[in-house]
Structures are given as structure tokens and as C-alpha cells.
Amino acid sequence: MPAARVRLILASVLFAAWIFYLGWLAWTTARPHIQLEQKFAITKTHYEVLSRSQFLVADMDIAAEVNDQGIITDYEVLWSADGQEDRQIALGMDLSNMLKDSDLEGVHHCLVPLVRSRGSVSVATLPTTPGFPRRWPSDQTPSTRAPVYHDNDQTRAQEREIRKR
To answer: What is the pLDDT of residues 78-108, one digit of tens each?
Structure first.
């Protein structure tokens, strides 16, 4: 009888620990935001995930300031493969199509992975992943899909994690 009682107590403690862990996960992850002002709305908090493969093929990561037309007006180099921070190479670059494709129209600060080629830069496209067939919209192919991201603390932390700095 004492062995059965010990097993019951051990199982109860493990069950309570598991329930506590699930509660902690539920508490620390994104929760709905309830707005009670003029109109009632429940919205889920947005968590944006960067494409690791897109950032790994990039030669330079920048935090760009974009005007209403989608043109880069200023930027900060967050990481460069060769350590050079060319301050003029991406100025005037048009991101309007990428902003539209990424549902970021009207956003004025974005995180952009760039690829250098022959003295100019372009947004790094999503590379194909071996063994993972993708279905693309009819007007897009893997070579034209180049998402850009919100520039906020959460996406910068992901970019730093990718670059391990």
C-alpha cells in the first residue's frame, strides 16, 4: 500500500507541474487585445516571423525609413557581410511593390535584407527550400517573392539571433 501511495503522490505532483507549465505558456504568449472604447473589438496581437533563409542569403540587413511612395529616404545598416556600411547604395530604392506584397503599405520603418550585385542592391528573395514544394500565386514565382518586415524590437531581436551578435 505505501508504494501505491508514493506513486499516486508522484503522479499528482507531475500532473500539477505539467498544468502549471501549460498555464505559464498561456500567460507568456500573445494574448488578445480587447478594446472597449468607441467600438468593441478583440484582436490578436501580431507576431511576425522573419524568413531565416532569406536573411542567410542576404549581404546586408538594413532598417529603412520609407516615404509614402515606398522610396527609401534613410537607413541604418544593421549587418553587412563584408563589414562595409555604404551609406548611399540603397538611398532612393523603390520598395513600393515589396511593401504591397508584404501588406506593409503605409508603414514608414521596415527591416530589409539586401543582396549586392554589380554595384547595386536589391531585396533578397526567398530561396527555395529543398524538399519543400511551394505553391505561389500566379503572378509571383520564387524569384520575385521578396518580403520586407516591420522594424520593431521583436523583429530586430530575431535579426540579431539570425546573425548571432
So the answer is: 999 888 777 788 888 888 888 887 778 788 8
Q: Are residues 132 and 57 in the same domain?
A: yes
Residue 131 vs residues 50, 128, 136: alpha-carbon distances, Å: 20, 9, 16
19/95 same-domain check: no
Tell me: the pLDDT tens digits for 55-83?
999 999 999 999 988 899 999 999 998 88
Q: Please provide residue 109's backbone torsions phi and psi, each rounded to the nearest 5 degrees.
A: -130, 120
Q: Which domain holds residue 124?
A: 52-163
- Name the β-bridge partners of 35: 41
34 and 61 both lie in a single domain: no
